[in-house]
Specification:
The structure is a homodimer of 661-residue chains.
Chain A: H1 2-21, H2 29-67, H3 75-93, E1 102-107, E2 122-130, E3 136-148, H4 155-159, H5 165-181, H6 185-190, H7 192-220, H8 222-225, H9 230-240, H10 246-255, H11 259-290, H12 299-333, H13 340-360, H14 365-383, H15 386-417, H16 425-453, H17 460-468, H18 474-482, H19 487-517, H20 526-531, H21 533-536, H22 556-573, H23 580-583, H24 589-594, H25 598-602, H26 605-611, H27 617-629, H28 633-637, H29 646-652
Antiparallel strand pairs in A: 2-3
Helix pairs in contact in A: 1-2, 2-3, 2-15, 3-15, 3-19, 5-14, 5-15, 5-18, 7-9, 7-11, 7-16, 9-11, 9-19, 11-12, 12-13, 12-14, 13-14, 13-15, 15-19, 16-17, 16-19, 18-19
């Protein structure tokens, strides 16, 4: 199908090329500009069509794989492979047809007052348009900056690539938001200490280790030594450190892997995306703003960069959480839930504006939207109407699916079509080696340290699995492609793309194998695990997860937060009980009365149990829905949508245990 | 809120401006380019944020209006008004801060082999980058064509406007698809003759009448006479003729207006969008390709353009219908319905690819996607799993809502910020007058002709309502902004924007008033109308709608199509009965067996009744869901989602009759 799209594209290009070359009288300039605009539109359509076909192909192949229960290749791996094939066809199948007409220009002789060190944003070209009567009239056309010129400058190829900003404004937000919105908050908070350690400390360590190692490697390769600074390699370390949750998580979902391992892997990869994006931003700021130019280590500049890191991360978190809470307040105190369509629209718009506010304030939208997603799920979700709950869940699930597969297709295609690749075998080899090592120094030493203080220890097979789950994905690629102005950055992009492609295909495909090698229990439902933990797992050195049945073993951090949340945040932001009238001191009575809704006062305990997610209810429903929506529907819940009948689903689910694998 | 966004934007621009102006050593060019890229990203975010805030504001205000049952202003009218306010603030609140650095250039002296009549696509500028050691190194930067330069060229203003292609690739497809997907097919097909007459013949007549009148007007205004050709005014006629369904339809939905009037207004406005886009394309082609340049009427060229019109319309229709049927076949013969997420993704991707295929083949994507939507609703919908039905309905409803409000906000903002407006009072006045007259020559003469042959006649109050429902909307604006290269086109854009704004605010706001002036029955439920038509409507000169109870009065066209559909299309594309085994001649037995699924053979009649939409069932469910999703949920169906329990909803709905207004 993609092939036929190419043929159409080719035919169109040739046809229009003929049109453009046809000589016309001067007064037809406008009409020809029309034609050119039409051609561009058609190329845009072809370009989008290409990716749409790739996604359709991926969807159909995924279905075949799922239908036949093949597990050696995951959907993201498939998307990458199809992307690679199509990219190769575009690159090598169409050698001619350079329809771009270019003109070398020089500054106007008398306009030489331009003395800045960067090229101007816009060029103004006076172009003579010959009128029909023999006279000419000068029109001025504007040209906007696009970038430095490299060898290949073919219209089609350029068109098959997108502006990197699209990733940060369009593709990443729904993926990251969905990660936050569908996080299993109960297990996430229970393992909060370990997750934060891996994500915050681990990612930083990994970045610095990779950066230092890469720098050492590069000193050994003469032609690279000059073009890379230590900051370049450190930046590479930061962008290659975050792991990708998508592939692993959907396999874990299919196989019903132990929930604590799930929480560790998912929580870590979601948060380390956030850490990596802030870290790489700080490194860039360090290079641009604070360094005085000597190139050596400067204490003052280092602390400024560290301050940046902390400031950006916490402010982004704050914006995300605030917007989530504002949405919760809006949905609690207005009756907008009477109009589900308006409510859903409000929810989507508030969530997207969180991203934009953070980006526009020079903070990190991805971090903001992640924490916004967590807050939306924790508070706002309880205030939504049934219709909106379902609609928002399903909407973001679908958006996430499409965005995720699009980005992986794009990684594949761009491997061949992106004009700024720079293949350097030495750098690529070093990159692979360091990426592996970086993951190891993240997981093993930190697990050792964590186990010293942790009561239910993280067993060694879980550590191996954490190591093997270290695929690189969308975030690494997006960071790498965002900036390709220098040779060093281009070599990083190429290496990052290759690492992403290989880890997604190989590690992603081998996940099932890893799970059985490491004796990780699969087919475990969390419900069952809680109820009959000892019965299900008889063999193996698993000392972890036992805590789930004893709430008093919760981590201190989780306990403090949980108390505050139940007593103040939930009563304020949702319709849950106890109300603020019960929890606030007497002196605040009038305030508490204002902030408590009638609904909150009148509802009974049953309603409360369903609404609240401080206990099991909500998470289980969320989880079930997420799990089952990619499972055969008929086998689990018949024709009943799982979200509609939580109790039914929860009863039905144990029947699934152990069925897969 | 929009105000604060502006402040932030302003601060950011100034800050970065300072950065850019700071003199740096030459080797920092790359870093400065980074900075510039960051600035652009931030401006993009601010721009999107602006519209997101506008939409949030609109949503909250709509809710207030609905909550307080105010009807004098519709949501699209609100979006336009907010847009106008914000546009004015941007235009007049920020006069300084031109951060764009431009450089006038001339062609390279030795590179003067460029001899085409259109400006080149790309300029290449060699820019000296001074190295730290005093030497300089030339880098070549590419600049891409943007357009002719007009007076105002401020970065902020340019950023608050979007590439017009965005409307055609992103905004219009979901709106038009949703129109097709939610069409009440039963009443649509019943009134097919009248709808096609109004849409096809009426829009064409209206375009030519407006074109001719405008041309006459323009001859009276000396300064305009030279810049407009007859083709220009004809193009204006084509783009101002389509009416906008959005505002009127949602008011009709709220008020439960008689279903036949609903079908006439909705069907006509959906189809005349399609006709207008093809018609305007043909006029443009006529000007560019066929006309020999003399400017007079040429019979040969006219017939070529007519051929174009028919070819493009029918091929687009064919592509749309084909892709709809392919999706139906895919969902019928694979078990992809076992995985609702994959199924929904496939549905969305196939629908969007329809649009892209048509656009890439030089046809009209909007027409294709409209008919694709109709086919998806008619066939594919029956094959989908319950989960996917709900998900796709809700998804497109939400997308439609957001896209629709975005485009109206944008019309408001762009009135002030779009740099290519050309205010000409004479043209504007003429435009308003002709738009009104064009609508009148569409509705009244054709209704008279239709009534000659039509058994249930279209009463005069319905005709007045059709006339008053002639708001101009998204399609007119999108066509006008698509091409603004000449003065004539810019004057058209300005006039079109004004007509859209005023009709949406005034006519949209007065719809309720119109309905009561013309004694149009409201609060009528179609179910009831069918069952007890005489009882509900006792007064008034309504001779129409009586046909709904007698199926033998169906139009001939509808009857032929209905038979073919029930006997061949439905059995082939859906799981409905009778199967092809029953309807195909005996000789085709083997083929029929292949095309009949087991499910189709085994299901009983009850299942068939629910699946099929050849009778009442499906349409009613669709309609109910669409109607109720913007109605207070609690009052109609309690906490039960209407789509899940069609029978429940259908029983519950009669309780609504006459409640509103």
């Amino acid at each position: 199908m993609a092939d036929s799209a190419m043929t159409v594209r080719y035919a169109v290009v040739v046809t229009i090329g003929v049109f453009l070359l046809k000589s016309c009288s001067g007064e037809e300039t406008d009409i020809k500009l029309d034609k050119k605009a039409q051609l561009l539109h058609r190329l845009d359509s072809l370009n989008l069509l290409l990716y749409t076909f790739l996604l359709i192909l991926t969807v159909l192949t995924i279905w075949t794989f799922k239908h036949r229960r093949l597990r050696f290749l995951h959907e993201t791996g498939l998307a990458v492979i199809y992307g690679l094939i199509v990219g190769a066809i575009i690159r090598y199948g169409f050698t001619n047809s350079s329809t771009i007409v270019h003109m070398p220009v020089v500054p106007e002789p008398d306009g030489s007052h331009y003395n800045q060190s960067v090229p101007p944003d816009t060029l103004w070209l006076r172009f003579p348009e010959s009128k029909g009567d023999g006279t000419t009239k000068n029109k001025t056309f504007a040209y906007s900056f696009r970038g430095e010129i490299y060898k290949r400058d073919n219209e089609i190829d350029l068109k098959a690539t997108f502006d990197p900003e699209i990733f940060f404004n369009i593709i990443l937000p729904p993926i990251i938001f969905h990660a936050g919105y569908s996080l299993k908050r109960k297990y996430f908070f229970r393992n909060l200490g370990a997750i934060l350690t891996y994500a915050l400390i681990g990612t930083t360590i990994s970045s610095f280790v990779i950066g230092a190692l890469m720098y050492t490697f590069i000193q050994l390769i003469p032609h690279l030594a000059s073009s890379f600074t230590f900051l370049d390699t450190l930046y590479f370390g930061a962008l290659i450190s975050p792991t990708d949750p998508l592939t692993i998580i959907s396999i874990f979902n299919d196989l019903h892997v132990d929930v604590n391992l799930y929480a560790l892997v998912f929580g870590e990869s979601v948060l380390n995306d956030a850490v990596a994006i802030v870290l790489s931003g700080s490194i860039q700021n360090y290079a641009e703003r604070y360094q005085s130019g000597s190139g050596g280590f400067e204490t003052w500049a280092f602390f400024q960069a560290l301050g940046d890191f902390i400031r950006i991360f916490s402010l982004s978190l704050f914006i995300g959480a605030t917007m989530g809470c504002v949405t919760a307040l809006l949905t609690k105190f207005t009756r907008v839930r009477d109009f589900p369509l308006l409510e859903s629209a409000l929810f989507v718009l508030m969530s997207y504006s969180t991203f934009l506010i953070a980006e526009a304030s020079d903070l990190t939208g991805v971090v903001a939207v992640l924490f916004c997603g967590i807050c939306q799920a924790h508070y706002t979700y309880n205030n939504l109407s049934v219709d909106s709950r379902q609609r928002t869940k399903q909407l973001f699930e679908l958006l996430n699916f499409l965005a995720e597969n699009f980005i992986f297709s794009y990684i594949g295609v761009s491997m061949f079509t992106f004009p700024k690749h720079h293949f350097d075998p030495g750098f690529i080899f070093a990159g692979f080696f360091c990426a592996l090592l970086g993951r190891a120094v993240n997981v093993y030493p930190l697990s050792f340290l964590l186990n010293l203080g942790r009561n239910p220890k993280i067993p060694s097979n879980y550590q191996h699995m954490l190591f093997c789950a270290g695929l690189r994905g969308a975030m690494s690629f997006a960071l790498a492609i965002r900036n390709t102005v220098s040779d060093a950055r281009q070599a990083m992009l190429t290496t990052t793309s290759l690492i992403v492609i290989l880890t997604v295909i190989l590690q992603g495909g081998a996940t099932t194998q890893f799970l059985s090698w490491f004796n990780i229990p699969v087919g475990v439902d969390e419900e069952v695990e809680v109820l009959s933990y000892n019965g299900v797992r008889s063999g193996g050195s698993l000392s972890m997860g036992g805590s789930t049945s004893k709430t008093n073993e919760k981590a201190l951090l989780a306990r403090i937060w949980g108390n505050f949340d139940t007593h103040y945040m939930k009563p304020l932001l949702t319709h849950s009980r106890p109300t603020l009238l019960d929890t606030l001191p007497v002196c605040c009575g009038p305030l508490a009365r204002i902030l408590t809704t009638t609904q909150q006062m009148t509802q009974d305990n049953v309603a409360r149990r369903v609404d609240s997610d401080s206990d099991l209810c909500l998470e289980d429903r969320d989880t079930d829905r997420r799990r089952t929506s990619i499972q055969p529907l008929g086998t689990v819940t018949g024709e009943v949508s799982p979200g509609q009948q939580p109790l039914h689903t929860r009863v039905a689910l144990p029947g699934l245990i152990g069925r897969h694998l």
